[in-house]
Fold these 2 entries.
Entry 1:
Amino acid sequence: MAGFAQQVVEGMGAGAIYAGLALALVLIHRFTGIVNFAQGELAMFSTYVAWQFMDAGLPFWAALAITLTVSFTGGMLIERVVIRPVEGAPELTMVIVTVGLFIFVNAAAGWIWSFLIKDFPNPFPDGALRAGGVAVGYPTLGILAVVGLVMGLLYLLFRHTGIGLGMRAVAADPDSARLVGIRVGRTLALGWGLAATVGAVSGVLVAPLLFLEPNMMGGVLIYAFAAATLGGFDSPAGAVVGGLVVGVAETLAGAYVDVVGSDLKIGVPLVIILVVLLLRPQGLFGRATVERA
Amino acid sequence: MSTPDDDFLVVEDLHAGYGGARVLHGVSLTVGRGEVCAILGPNGAGKTTLLRALCGMVKGRGAVRLGGTGLLGRPPDAVARLGVAHVPEGRGTFLPLTVEENLRLGAFTRRDRAAVQADLERVHGYFPVLRKRLKQQAGSLSGGEQQMLALGRALMLRPRLLLLDEPSLGLAPMVTRELFGIVRSINEEERTTVVVVEQNAHLALGIARQAHVLETGRIVLSGPAERIRADEQVARSYLGYRV
């Protein structure tokens, strides 16, 4: 039984990372209707920025602060330069543009920092909290705490600030948002900046576990897609719950289902995506809008 | 002798349309400060396009001035910040948000928090039904309630100019009458200048001082509302009802 609980805890640690990236995906999708395939690569690039500053001798938290600022600015810049010109284009165009961005960012990171793996320090201390035969590593606790914090800050932003209300208005109806005086373009850029920042957090959390290299986020992105699909592509809370469920499901399947083992674990998100799309396309937390004619 | 108040909103030789399709062919009119102006005319005459050109949703040529400030060429959000509140066709409600959030969004550009709070109370005064539904999702309101919400949202801007596009659309006659009554009292109590586009000419003429009849993108008749209402010929040919 303790073994099972142990697996669940490990799964939640992994899941929190998927949740972080899924949050970034959901943010952009909610505002722009775009599924940003480049989200993982942007997170990877941000992580390299953090590495670069640490390599130059800055302490972890200082490097992180700079990285988040750079990511926010970079996300806004990408919206202005890459996304704005194709705003309102059909979905397929958007998919191609973000896939193009994926390839570009991936190649750029390889060009700047090479494809050789780099060590990335873990900001959390080694060791574990033990309770009832279950050991929860401090890094796992740290990841859960950080994702919880990000989630809480986003909640405060959206529910309790004017900017957040404006962002939700733009997500609901950009034309009406303009009519009440909201600068929609600026708000969309803000959304991209925010998503890039949240993505950067997930990149920095995952790097110590995976080693830093340009293809680091590929697998994580697939899990994040599963998490966002499961939770509902419009629901930040759903993204977090979805991430945790996917993480736990993946770990349990790997541990207890012989055919899955560690080789087929990556198949778990695919199964989750398929089942959710078949049974509940809007996801667990996706809201169907109430509308009276 | 015209005073600045007589020429509060000035539209001169306004041409507008969508892409290649020209809809307005040189519309000119003026609205005095604190007046209600009705734009009447059949479907497809360009009434909605006129309002959209005023608020920046479609591009126009010519001149539009509000209190001396040019509006043409400004995007809708900039026009809104100049104090123009537009209740568009379809009401422009933020359906997934709550009633209260919709109202607060009306005051998005304002920084005078205390006054916004007071205006929220004022809007509740005009529309008591909204007060009961503040925490409810706006999409769950009935058509009449949504139109009241749209009007309330527009009032939250403390607009200098209020543009109403077919407020009666899809509403029961009794609700429509109530709504026009509220527009009238808003105009009387706050001296808000109103341009209302309506198919229901009878109601619109009831609250308007001046009226213009638009047909295929041109103004074919202008005058004091009561004269237009009294003109049987006009009534039959343009307004589609018998006096």
Entry 2:
Amino acid sequence: MLRIERLSAGYSAKPVLNDVSICVGAGQFVAIVGPNGAGKTTLFKTISGIVKPSGGAITFDGFDLLAVPPPQRAHLGIAHVPEGRQVFPSLTVMENLEMGAMTESGRRDWQANIERIFEWLPVLKERRNQFAGTMSGGQQQMLAIGRGLASSPKLLMLDEPSMGLAPSTADFIFERLIEIRRQSGLTMLLVEQRVAEALESADRGYVLEAGHVVLEGNNATLRADDRVRKAYLGM
Amino acid sequence: MEGFLQALAAGLLIGAVYGLMCVGLGLIFGVMRVINFAHGDFMMLGMYTAFYLFTAAGVQALFGNAVGPFVAILLAGPVLAVFGYFVHRTLISHVSGTRTASLEGEGHYAQLILTLGIALILQNGGLIVFGSVLASIRTPLSSSAWEIGPLFDMSIFLNKARSIDAIVSLAIMVLLSLLITRTRIGKSLRAAADNPTAATYMGIDVDRAHRTAFALGCGITAIAGGLLATNYPFHPFVGLEYVIVMYAGVVLGGMGSIIGAFWGGMTIGLVQQMSTLILPTQLQNAAIFAVFLLIIFFRPQGFFGRMVERT
């Protein structure tokens, strides 16, 4: 569904991604793990078009993604749940969800989507008329996820949904994501620093270090790999 | 007491028009974060557009002297909105929005120079095209009044033209707030203002949202300018006199708050008219800024401003 080939990108003179190739098949749950500054967020921003690549190709659902203007990419079915949540603070929870549903598919399925989102993340229903900026970090993260789901995406990209959250809240959000995936079969691409949890629930994984893919494989291979066990799983 | 009520009424009437004028600028600043120094000159163009629509384009012949001016003024709004749309497309968009999002200072320096340049061109271009003679949109309503009362032996006189100006301003303000709060376009404008990057992730074309805000802001201020022109004569440099008031209103209301800008403008209108009770008329503007400084001293974020920075 998403195929990234030999992608290089960066900010002005500073290259961040180097020859990165990643493949996400339809229905798969793929995790990208790696330390701070490895280029995980830049990779997502390049997929969404906020960062311009210096080389390589991205195809999504048969489209040459790099030829599609950034705001149009959401309409193709890519939902980006950004790092640091980035909800619209002066809009209510409901209005934030409506912004998620700006795409054609999101508008079409609005009623069904909103019911499912409220079922998965009931706190959003309770607080639907509250301004997003006044909510806690965990609630904002759930709103960011709900906002992504509201577009009826083909691919949900999650950039560190656990960032800045209390461990118990992060656990809860992880558990919700797995439940959402179990029920919807949605294709997901996850970037995480909580490597153990990410690898445990994903089908496939990539380890990104200093802008390079240093390791890739399915769930079992990665978790059995010595380097991963030493560097990330603390074993 | 009678004088006080009379000044209060006059302040409310002029305040509504000032409010509308400030909202035009507040919308542009709130959504785009662009400081538009040329906004007073867009208003000047709105005044002349209304003037020529009324006198030369047949509106006067069609609608007469009483209704005609207001028809011309309302038509000037869309004309200036289209003008603003193209100014944004050809000039402003090069130094704002997604093109400059990653630059240091987000292109603010270039924006200052560019809008200042546009202001100079409009002012001096206006001088060439319209001449330096004072113009005004005359209506017989400007020199007649409705009498309210007598109540408790007091009568208040409301200038007819100013009263209609205020009603038109309030009506447009209500329409605009409905647009901003209820419609899809309005919500996407607010989302683009809150967080342009996240708005792009949602599939909102931020540059197009900016263009919409700029066009709307120009149209709204043009209408406010036309309304002012029924009572105040104008000339090609009139924008300079108003742009400071506009900024004071936007800052008072709270930078970035669109509805706040209306109340900021309203406050300025009230202060200006009430100050005539105790100060000579020449000091009207001094009074505005004395009150402005006082309010900013006690409430630096303005009436509706948020202290939290946008993420």
